[in-house]
Amino acid sequence: MKTVYSPRHKGHRNQVELNSGAIVPGFELPERAEIIRRRVEAVGLGEITAPEEWDLETAAKVHRRDYLDFLPTVWQRWTAEGRSGSALPFTWPTRGLRGDVPPETIDGLLGFYSFDAGASFVEGSWDAIKSSHDVALSAAQLVKNGERAAFALCRPPGHHAGSGFAGGYCYINNAAVAAQWFLDQGAARVAILDVDYHHGNGTQEIFYERADVAVFNLHADPLQEYPFYLGHADERGTGQGEGFNTNYPMRWGTDFARWDEAHADACAKLKQYAPDVVVVSLGVDTFERDPISQFKLVSDDYPRIGRRIEALQLPTLFVMEGGYAVEEIGINAVGVLTGFEG
Ligand code: SP5
Ligand code: ZN
């Protein structure tokens, strides 16, 4: 299968995050995408192409316009206040506070448009975010034009980004934008299968009231794990969307046998939905040696994930999400893709 990749992701680096009481270098490193790209080349997965430039009109159907307008201005606003380093929020509008009045200053705005301190900005961040969005849409176009599958080597990732918030290393929800684009191109139904270790809270929020995108999410139990406040099994969608959101929360220590049971169930339900296309939010932070995760998958398990997805016999877009065991991220992510190819 073909891969779409842009070197512009590299400008998003030296980010920091707040972790266990300390400001630390971010886990979401540029090396991640480079190691995956090199693995794609090493196994001869297929051609690697550059993305086209896309406007943000499709993104504006899944994100609020004010949020999309804010993202490109962050670094300029930050430096205008004499700051350097990484732009990071420190105050958020939680329950009982006003979430409907955007503040005027950068510190207020960063918190207003995020849910954690996991989506910092440096000078090259917006260009990288935009390139990641373009990578997703260009790979979606390959599938629309008849490829059985394509790989969007997105960085930064997207599944924690909601209609009006960044967080968890995510800014634009690349998988959601791609799903929306397939609908705009004539698809009747799109399924999103999210296999990242963390719950795709942004993706769920975006599509929660919609029946044209069914979301299946396998992840660590929010009772134990980040992002904590969404992803329980009783969240099934609402209104028109009732029954079109399915969560599979799993406890710390989950191994492949248990994980694959959930995956089999998700794939069976997904098949019943009879979508025109599947968008896979591909995270490999389920790996046993992932530095921020608590599942027990091993490298040999990833091709099996790909096999099961292939068995759906549907056009498939893989969108890269998380995975922080940098050394093995190429083997594991591309393992899913080679498993799919058979
Ligand atoms: C796309 C994606 O996978 N985003 C993940 C964001 C996770 N952010 C929270 C990280 C918390 C890490 N704390 C674990 C302590 C390990 N020493
Ligand atoms: Zn993750």
UniProtKB/TrEMBL annotation:
InterPro entries xrefs: HDACs (IPR000286), His_deacetylse_dom (IPR023801), His_deacetylse_dom_sf (IPR037138), Ureohydrolase_dom_sf (IPR023696)
Residue ranges of domain Histone deacetylase in the record: 30-330
Keyword annotations from UniProtKB, A to Z: Hydrolase, Metal-binding, Zinc
Signal peptide: none
Pfam family, one: Hist_deacetyl
Highest taxon above the source species: Bacteria
SUPFAM superfamilies assigned: Arginase/deacetylase
Cofactors named for this entry: Zn(2+)
PANTHER family given in the database record: HISTONE DEACETYLASE 8, HISTONE DEACETYLASE HDAC1-RELATED
Name of the protein in question: Histone deacetylase family protein
